[in-house]
Amino acid sequence: MRLPHRVTHQALAGVALMTLASAISGAGSPQVSEGSRIAGEWRGTSVCTNHQLAPACRDESVRYVFSASPQDSNTFHLVADRLEAGTYQVMYEIDLHYSATDGTWSYQLDSRACPHCLWWYRIDSSGLVGGITSKDGEELRRVVAQRHTGTTPDTSPKRTK
C-alpha cells in the first residue's frame, strides 16, 4: 500500500526536524561519560550480610557523594559518610573505576580485615545498589540508596580534600 504523497513528505519533514533539533541541542556540549550517572549525592543504608566473615560489621544509615575525576572520565571520587546522632561523619574516601562492560563502579579493597575484597556500586531501576564482596564471592555488605535532591539540610561536618 502506497501512502499519499503529502503524508510521506510530512513524515520526512518531521524526521528531519527532529534530527536537526537533536544535533543543535548536542552542539557544543561536552561528551559526558556513561559513568557520570553516579555523580551526586545518594542516601540510604549499608547493611551487614555476613557476621561470620565480618564480625565487627554494623548496619549504617549512609550518605555517598560521588564526583567525577578531572583526570580520568572513568574514575569517580567517593566520600562516604554515616549518620551518627543526627550528624553525618566521614567514614572513608576512595576512587572508584567505572566499567562500561558491566555498568559497575568498583574499588579493590585490600585490608587486613578484608583482603582482596571489592567495593562495588551499580545503578538499577531501584536506585544505587552495591556492597562489599570477598575474594571468594561472599557478600559481606549490601548498599541500597536513593539519589538525594537536596531538600533535607546538610548535617555534615566541613571536610577538606
Structure characterization notes:
The protein has a single domain (34-147), classed as Calycin beta-barrel core domain (Lipocalin, Beta Barrel). 14% of the residues lie in helices and 44% in strands. The chain has one helix and eight strands, in the order αββββββββ. The protein has one helix at residues 5-26; strands at residues 40-48, 60-68, 75-84, 87-99, 104-109, 117-124, 127-133, 139-147. β7 and β8 (139-147) form a beta hairpin. Residues 3-31 have low confidence and may be disordered.
Write a concise synopsis of the structure shown.
This protein has 161 residues and is mostly beta strands. The protein is built from one helix and eight strands; from the N terminus they run αββββββββ. The protein has one domain (34-147): Lipocalin.
Secondary structure topology:
Blueprint: H1 5-26, E1 40-48, E2 60-68, E3 75-84, E4 87-99, E5 104-109, E6 117-124, E7 127-133, E8 139-147
Antiparallel strand pairs: 1-2, 1-8, 2-3, 3-4, 4-5, 5-6, 6-7, 7-8
Number of helices: 1
**Overall pLDDT metric:** 82
Q: What order do the SSEs take from the amino end to the carboxyl end, as H and E? A: HEEEEEEEE
Give the domain tally. Answer: 1
Let me know the number of strands. 8
Question: What is the rounded distance between the termini?
Answer: 66 Å
SS class: mainly beta
What is the CATH homologous superfamily assignment?
Calycin beta-barrel core domain
Query: Biggest sheet, strands in spatial order?
Result: 1-2-3-4-5-6-7-8
CATH T-level topology: Lipocalin
